[in-house]
Structure formats: structure tokens, C-alpha cells
Amino acid sequence: MGFLGEKDMFCCLPICSFRFTCSRSRGQIRFCSSSRPLSITTTSAPLFLRPLSHNTTSSHLQTFHAWAKSLAFSSNHPDPPHLIRELTWLLQDATSDPHTSFLQLGTTHPIWRVPLRVELKELYVLWKARVEERRPLQYIVGCEHWRDLILVVRDGVLIPRPETEMMVDFVKEIDGSESGLWADLGTGSGAIAVAIGKMLGEDGKVFAVDLSQTAVEVAEINVERYGLKDKVEVRHGSWFEPLEDVVGKLTGVVSNPPYIPSKHIPGLQVEVGKHEPQLALDGGEDGLHHLLHLCEGCLSVLKSGGFFGFETNGDEHSELIAGLMKTRWSGQFRDVKVIADFAGIKRFVTGFKM
Amino acid sequence: MVSFLSKASSLLLRSCQNPKPNRNIRRLLSILSSPTPSSSVASSHARRWIPRQGAAFREISRWREFCSREFCSSAAEESQAKNLDGMTVDDIVAKEWTVLEEDASDWKSHAAAIALSIQLVKKRMQWKKMLIRLDQLSMAVSKSDIWDDPVYAGRICREHGLLMGKMKEVNGFEQELLDHIDMLKLAREENDSDIELDCISSLIQIRRKLKEKELEALLSGNNDSYSCYIEVQAGAGGTESMDWASMIMNMYKSWGERRGYIVTVVDEMPGEIAGIKRATIKVDGKYAFGYAKAEIGVHRLVRISPFDSAKRRHTSFSAVAVIPILGDLSSRYKINDSDLRIERFRSGGAGGQHANTTDSAVRIVHIPTGITATCQNERSQHQNKASAMSVLQCRLDQLEMARQAQMNSEHTRSLTDISWGNQIRSYVLHPYQMVKDMRTNFEVSDPYSVLEGDIDCFILNFLSTSLEKDED
After folding, report:
1. Which NCBIfam families does the annotation name (chain A) (predicted)?
2. Cα dihedral sign, A273-A279-A285-A287
3. Euclidean distance between CA atoms A9 and A7, whole angstroms
């Protein structure tokens, strides 16, 4: 099944009908009061799913490439070579050629027709936004490659991070994880829920919960795209609230909640601070606000022996939570582990309810 | 063989209908009873043609089957194919008959062309080495305890079968050539021009088939048919040499695409100003390794550097390594998960929600050997990891192969083993224009077409000279 099939599937979805609000995702209701409308509104599909209804020549694309490259190197971006890699990905998504071989053809066959998914001049606008406004590539192309998935993302939804991929591996390693009821709290784009949904057997199910209407819509698109409608159920609401019907029945709870301490928010990398939904990032004064709520809450929704896995701000947070589970909640959790990501930062806390 | 038999049979049939006894019947029968591997097909075919000689042919076929079994089991001893006059393929070459174009009707020209092709194919296949290897393998296979180690036994038996198959094919060509020469002589004595013409057209066909075999024989190494990784590393000399490394890499990318291979960049360390420090590409397709292995070594560039404001002439170097991607799973190096350390390639910073980067490069370190692999060109960490893992696997396979030293060590060297003194090719853009291979002395005066990927001539030249030299 090629692009056409995927596109058809996508077109069935009500992608153009949603409102754009920044009532950011997970977190509690109090955050909603601070929501404001987004300045950038885009109602079009992710780049790679649009039809190849435009075209240009290989030499025009070569000119674009040279311009884009020089813009990247003259910018104040900390890692221009990586920007060039992103440029390749932008071109891969904008054309139907995964090898971008038209760039070589630019010299030998300058008038070679290359079909495009956007107008050429739009590519200039997109790249300018990437380099000058530091708009994340994932919002520009409307997708993020995560594990073996291509997830649709858009403004107002946190872009899933590479670190979080490991969460799915933890779930995979648990005996009997392919059956039972799971919950991904603050699902955002639905990344973890979709990845777990793909591993589940006949009698398994994931509840993907998010407070943000945008996140719920995007998660639903991703669930639909991977044909997981009967495995993943997206529910709208704050943390455990939409799960009242399954209290005490869950096999596992996973979450990547907002965990950045409020005082760090102004100093964030431009791509994050200026473009991503702050309310998906802000973990309150010490960054632990939601994490502690999750620890407390999972004791009631998990069945006995149920698994939990949380992503944290790193080192101290993970140690602190693991410590609290032995003191404040002593006797209620077992096999609590702190696990490092590939950068060596103690990123995750996992364990089981007694 | 079948077509030959049908000609022989029709000749025989006519001879039998002749009231006068014909000495040629005896000669033909002796041709038919000469030991060749495809005897059963041949004799059954012959039986259909000459009902009257049925009983005699059944005898012959039984005898020939017996002979062919003997022949196969003792294939290690080189049994030279001969025709009735005791002539061998080498004798035909020694006669130095003039080789004419394919459309000429002189049978001697075709016979000579075929004989020469057979000799070339044998040389390229490294016939003498094959015989020695076959001897070793036959000995190993016949040992009673070989199946105690099924993995080893499987590998040995597979190699034995493969080698036998290759040798049988060449022997078959030799026999066919000699049989046709016999038949031609007979046909002339009998003045049967139909059969004579038939024989000549068969010779032409054999000649064509062998031309293809000549090329195939260049790629008869154990791993030649596999896909491969090509790695390029810039030598000392800053931006100019990094630019040279990227020119070389582009040459391989477009060479691969021209040949219809799928080329993907696995890992690329760009230079600060231009070019690359090092890069790895994957070339996917049949015989990718067989061809690309000819590129292993150091490539030298002489030009006026566009990065030198004083417009001076610079000489720079790039090293090229090629690693096969083994298809045979049983021979692959076994990696224990506990021996691996996986790390983010560019760590630093708080990570997690703090950072939005599409850069998810990982490095995998195999702790016992210290061998590492990096991938940064995939769009998810998961896939970077998978891709780095397969590079690591191939590097470890290569190490294992070098350790076993069962292969030509020339073809298994990794980038780190390539010494900068080992220059294989020189590309001069200034003051004159020329690309010259130091190993074969083959040269081309248009360096730009070479840099655009037109390197097949260099590759084929190197492969044929190295194989033919090896055999002598």
C-alpha cells in the first residue's frame, strides 16, 4: 500500500473541522483558563499525505536546496549540519522520492519534472519558518517519525521525544503485556498508546487520555491511521477522571506528563519554548506536580501487580519519586526501578503495585 | 548435449539404413559412450531416435551413468575432457586458429573462440585454487564425524555443492565443444551439410553463452553476490580533503544508482565548511559487494583547491572500505546484548521535554572488541538504533572473516586497516586531466565522467587483472 492508500485513509477523517485552541493537553483543568488562540492556524494535512498535485524541475529544486543550505549555515542555529539533514527530510516528504535523487539530476537533467506535494514557493516559506522562526520541522511537515511509526502532529500537541520510545520497550518486556487494559495518560499525539496498541493481542486495550481537545483529535487520527480503533480508545479528560469505569482493573499505566519546573520554561530552546504547547511542558513550581498526582492515582486504578512507568525530568526527580515510593507509599509498590535513557540521564521510574 | 545427441542419432540412423556397413557407427557409439554428466537425458533422447539400436543404447546408458557417477566423485582429480582424436581444449587454443566475428561460418574460428573463453573463465574462477579447495572439502565431507557440528557441516556441504556445480558447468562446456568438433568431422566425412550447419549454429550459441560466463566469473567470490556498505574517510588536509571525500562518496552514490542498486546514507559526519569527514552508505542489490570490493584503498586527488585563496595545487586523499552484508545467517557473528553499550551520539543538555530535536543519532559500542557503529540519518531513534545495529553486525562479521582468514584478506580490510600509503587510484584535474588506476595502469582522460560514477571500466579491469594474475 503506497501513499495513495494512506492518503485515502486520511481523507476520511474530519481533519479540517477542528477548532484551533491551545487549551493545552494534559494537566489539570486550572491550566485551561490560561489558554489563548494560536496565531498560526493550519488546517491542511501533513505534507507526506498530500497529493502530488504540483510540480517543478530538478534544477529549480537544486536552486532551492542551495538557498536553503546557505540560509541554514548563515543562521544562528547551533547545529547547521543537522538542519541540512532536516532539509533532506523536508524534501523527502514534499516529493515522492525517498532518495532525493533529483538533486543530482539538477546538473545533468535540469528540466527533469519532479512532482511536488506543495508549490515550490511554499517550500521557501516553510524553510524560512524553520530556520528564522525556529519552528520545529515536525510541525512544518506535520509528522514525527517515532519508533517505527509516522505520527501526525500539529501545533498544540507535544512532539513526541526520542527518549520516550524506551517506554514502549519496558511495556514489551513485561510478561502478559499483550493482554489486559492499559492507560496512556496525557497521550498527546497518541504515540505511546499507538505503539502499545500495535503490540496487543485479541483481549488487550489501551485508553489514551488527554485533557486537550487538539490532542484528542490528533491522537484519534493516529489511531485511525494504524487501524487500531478497536485496540485504542481515546478519552477526553484530566488524568484518571475519564477512567472511573475501570478503577482497579488496569494492567498498566504509562505517562510522559509535563515535568519541566516553571522557572525553566522561559529559558527553553526556541523550538520548544516558542512553538510547543507550554502546558504540556510545565510541571509546576518544582516540576513534580503531575508526577506526584500520577503516583497517588495509579494506586487506585491499577489492579494488584499492575505496572507503572513514568518519564521524569531526569536524575533528581527519578531518585526522589523512587524514594517516596519507599517512604510515603511504603508497602504499596514493589520492584521500583530508575532507568537511564541513552544519554545516561536517569529518565524513567518503573515498578509494580503490590 | 541433447541437441548434440539428436544430431548424432540422426546421423547414426542414416548410417544404419545404409546397406553397407559403416565404420562411423562404431565411432559414434564410442562418442555416445564417452563419460559425460548429462548422460541419462542424452541416452533416453537417443533411444527415441534409433529404435533399432535400443538395446545397445540401454547398455550404453547404464555404462555412462556408472561413468558419470565415478566422474563426479573424483572430480577433484582434473580429468581433462578429450575428443576422439585425443584433442583437449588447451590443444585447440594451441592451434591458434584465427578468431573471426560471430557471423563467420568457419567452425574453427568458433571453436577457437570457445576454447579461449573457457580458458579465461577457468582463469578467472581460479581453477587451480578451486581444485585444491574441492579436494579439501571432499575430504572434510567424507569424514564420518562431520555432522557432530551441524552448523559447520552445513556450511562445508553447501560450499562443496556450490563448487561442484560451478566446475561441472565449465566441464560441460568443454565436453560440448569437443563433441561438436567430433560431430562436425563426421558430418563432413558423410557429406551431411544439414548437420554441419546445425553444429556450427550450436557452436555460435555456446560461444555467446561463454561470453556471459566470462563476466560472471569475475564475480565468483564467496561474498560477491551480497549487498554491501561503502565507507569513505577523508585524509589529513582539512576542508579540501573533506570535499574530496564527499566527491568520492557522490561518485559511489551515482555509480550505485546507475547500476540500479538502492543507495542509502547510513551515517555522515559533515565537515565544518564543506564536504564530509567520514560517511557510510548502504548499497543494496545483487553483486554490489563483488563490484565495490575493487574500490578498496586510498584515492588521490590533485587539483587547484577552490578553498585556497592563493589558488595553489593541492593533493588530497580519501580512504575507501567496503563491507559485505552477509546473507547467510549461520555464518554471522553472534552478538550478546550484554556486550553492547548504546548511547546518544550527541548527548549533553537536559533532553526529554527540554529539547526538540530531530537528531536522534545513536552509537552502539561492542564492548569486547571496541567496535562501534553510528547512525544518524534515520528519522527516529528506534530506526537509527536498528540501522547502527546492522552496521555493527557487518563490522563484526568482517572481523570474524578476517580472523578465520578463509578469504582473500585484500577484500576484508576495514577502514582502520587501510594504510594511507596504499594508493589505488589517482585523479588529476590539474595541470592535465586523467584518472589512472595504479594497480592495473588503466587510465581515462575524462575525470569528470568518472567522478559522476562512470567507474565500471576501472572495476572490471581491476577484477579481471587481479584474478588472472592470481591464477598465474
Report:
1. hemK_fam
2. negative
3. 5
State how far the Cα of B312 lies from the Cα of B303, in Å rounded to an integer. Answer: 8
pLDDT, one tens digit per residue, over A218-235 is: 999 999 999 999 999 999
Q: Which residue in the set A99, A162, A259 is minimally distant from B380, CB to CB?
A: A162
State how far the alpha carbon of B305 is from the alpha carbons of A299, B234, B298, B425, in Å. Answer: 68, 15, 19, 19
Give the best residue of B254, B277, B379 to mutate against chain A (max A CB count within 10 A): B379
**End-to-end Cα separation, chain B, in angstroms:** 32
Q: What is the CATH number of domain B227-472?
A: 3.30.70.1660
ipTM: 0.81
Q: What are the boundaries of each domain within chain B?
A: 2-217, 227-472
The answer to whether A268 and B354 have CB atoms below 8 angstroms apart is: yes
DSSP character for A282?
B
Length of chain A: 354
Q: Which of B254, B257, B351 sits opposite A341 (nearest CB)?
A: B351
How many residues are recorded in chain B? 472
DSSP assignment of B291-320 equals HHGGG-EEEEEEEE-TT-TT--EEEEEEEE
B352 vs A206, higher pLDDT: A206
Range list of H helices, B363-443? 381-404
CA–CA gap between residue B319 and residue B296 (Å, rounded): 8
Instruction: Give SS3 for B324.
Output: strand
Residues 363-422 of B with CB under 8 A from A: 376-383
What domains are there in chain A, each with its CATH number?
Answer: 47-141 (no CATH), 144-353 (3.40.50.150)
B362 contacts chain A (CB < 8 A):
yes
Q: Is A162 on the interface with B (CB under 8 A)?
A: yes
In chain B, positions 259-288, which contact chain A (CB-CB < 8 Å)?
A: 262-264, 270
In this predicted structure, the answer to whether residue A29 has a pLDDT above a threshold of 50 is: no
